[in-house]
Amino acid sequence: MNDGDHSATALHPGTTLDRDVVLEQLFRDHYASLVRLAYCLIGDRAASEDAAQEAFVSLHRHWEGLRSSGAVVAYLRRATINQCRTTQRRLIRGRGALARLPSRADTASSEDSAVEHDELRRLAAAIRALPARQREVLVCRYFLELSEVATSEALEIGVSSVKQHAHRARTALHAMMGESR
Amino acid sequence: MTIDDRAIERALTALADDGYATSTNVDPAYREFVARTSRAERLRHVTRWAVAAVVVGILALGGILAFQQGGDRDGRDRLQPATPRPSTTQLISPTELVGTWLVEADSLFGGFPWLWTFNADGSGSGSPNANTTENTWVYTLSGNSIGARDRPGGCAYSWVVSRYDAGSLTLEVLNHCGNLGDDITLTRLSPASPAGSAIAMPSMTDATPLRDVADAGGVWLMRGTGMLLAIEARNPAFATYRLDDQGSLASDPVDRGTVALDATGDLTLVSTNPPPHGCAASRPGARLTGVVVTPLGLQARQGVESVCIDADLTTSWIRVAAR
């Protein structure tokens, strides 16, 4: 999922276009990427779809209060992340979430790619095992490709915290991948 | 495999592909969104009408009462308009709120109990497991309103105390991280309260001997008391415990240390806290012998020996949080 702030749609709430028309276009442009974002955070498809849905419902409710097109996508992301935090508390047993990660059915065509594929799966599982805040930082930085400043705004934490969590996450990943060999 | 930025990107993309392909048709999802917004709009309209009706009702009732009061007097006093009642009595004091609570709210937590701790300094924490500081927040109690915010940043919460009696607290949910939900029921476990002390010991009929320290992981309430024992056993080779009956299990437990399980099912708490509550050196502080467990209960069938931990431990423990 890319930054997404540069949608072709006239996004900003102050547009003369009808709210529902703009919302439909926004939904079609961004729903899938928000579900994917949520899935990276909570690993449950139904809950991820619900989180993205609720982000759009929240946008619908607060439409009048938004000021710019950039703010709309940022708002959707923040709302999705917040929904995921709530959902995570509902799902509980966060450590059991790894077990819910589906195993991919597709198989690699060569031994090398199979090994590489397996390594990526292990790395993805290790990311899912990180503490929530570290995982959120990695998802913002490497999945959404946000800058440190944009990540701090999306997660509503300081830039120094972003750096700290990213550092700890990478250290933990190295440890987990090393230990599991 | 080198864990560079590109590897993390690819791993996350693979993970997202597992959950939702970008090519998925969004039409059904959009129809669901339209239905949700319609429901939300209807709910808002109903709520507005309900609030308006309640306000009109209150004003009308106030007017009638004022009229009756005026009529009871002999006409020398001028009829006064009805005035709102002063704010209601605070149902729970800040001191009573401080402590560790068992939280039950099916609609918000998926039916799993959580432990929340409110500290005297306005901080708090909560989790559904032995890692009792997994989520931290700051809170304020003003009248019967409790506001909280996750730290750092994160969700905001707003509840109203609707009932408090002998350690049993009911909160009406105004905003739970952007959600509404049913009332939340809390029972204060520590410091001890009548409601917490009354929690019944579950049946131990199907209990099995404790053979894996991980099965003792979680938070346990000593039956009939406010004593909590949190055993963190995600790494069975280095299980730790915290022991507290002062409401500060999360931040400053009375005692802490490591946990060892031997082949006969004896669970030993090795205190690393100094006296007066802990032991002078790292040595067995307490031993629970012949331990048996069920998913909900733990029992030391051959007794408990407190060697140097300053706590009168007994044999029966009730699970109040998962491992």
Structure description:
The complex is a heterodimer of chains A (181) and B (323). Chain A has eight helices and no strands. Chain A is mainly α and 181 residues long. Chain A has two domains: 1-97; 109-181, Arc Repressor Mutant, subunit A (Orthogonal Bundle). The longest helix of chain A is centred in the first third of the chain and has 24 residues, at 19-42. Chain B has 323 residues and is of the alpha+beta class. Chain B has three domains: 24-86, no CATH class; 94-195, Lipocalin; 208-321, Beta Barrel (Lipocalin). In chain B, strand 5 and strand 6 (156-165) form a beta hairpin. The longest helix of chain B is centred in the N-terminal third of the chain and has 46 residues, at 27-72. The chains are: A mainly alpha (181), B alpha+beta (323). Chains A and B meet through helix 1, helix 2, helix 3, helix 5 and helix 6 of A and helix 1 and helix 2 of B. Chain A: GO terms for molecular function: DNA binding; sigma factor activity. Chain A: Belongs to the sigma-70 factor family. ECF subfamily. Chain A: Residues 26-90 form the RNA polymerase sigma-70 region domain. Chain A: This is RNA polymerase subunit sigma-24.
